[in-house]
Amino acid sequence: MKRKGSKQKKDDPDKRGPKFLIWLVTTKCNLKCSHCYAAKFADGELSLEEKFSVVRDAVQTGIKEINLTGGEILLHKDGLKLINYIAEQEIDLNVFTNGTTLSEEIVKELAKNEVFIELSIDGAKKESHEKIRGAGTWELTISGARR
After folding, report:
1. Which terminus of the chain faces fewer neighbouring Cβ atoms within 10 Å, N or C?
2. Across 90-101, average pLDDT
3. 19-41: pLDDT as tens digits
4. What's the rounded Cα separation, in Å, for the pair 24 and 27?
């Protein structure tokens, strides 16, 4: 479903093939969540140019939306460069984050690029969230969400 403000064109004649990409960009993270699978894929990361090539190939294939996940993409040294590059392609972009690294600067950059944020909050209370994400994570996540 196209969300309000989507960069997708309404009259896309090619209805075949994949339309979105879920990309585990990095396994690096500042948390140790009990359910996380990212560490299983810790066999090296692509260079920034290789990441750009993946984006170009995805766009050529007809991908209309890219979902960046990890680990924590906002901790990656090239995370914002990759986000900016994807935003230039005029396709929808979602970033999955634990929210603990959402500074004012990062939030402004994401807003400028019309990035949709998927924020990981586990439960309605501090206790349930921290049982999964670790002690001290609730306030960091909520603080990030408020930005």
Report:
1. N
2. 94
3. 999 999 999 999 988 888 887 77
4. 7
- SS3 (DSSP) at 102: coil
Domain ranges of the chain: 20-146
Token pair belonging to 7:
């960069």
| Phi, psi values for residue 82, rounded to 5° | -65, -45
Q: For the domain with range 20-146, which CATH number is right: 3.20.20.70, 3.40.50.2000, 3.30.70.60, 2.160.10.10?
A: 3.20.20.70
Residues 6+ apart with CB under 8 A from 3: 92, 116
- Its pTM stands at 0.83
pLDDT tens, position by position, 53-68 = 999 999 999 999 999 9
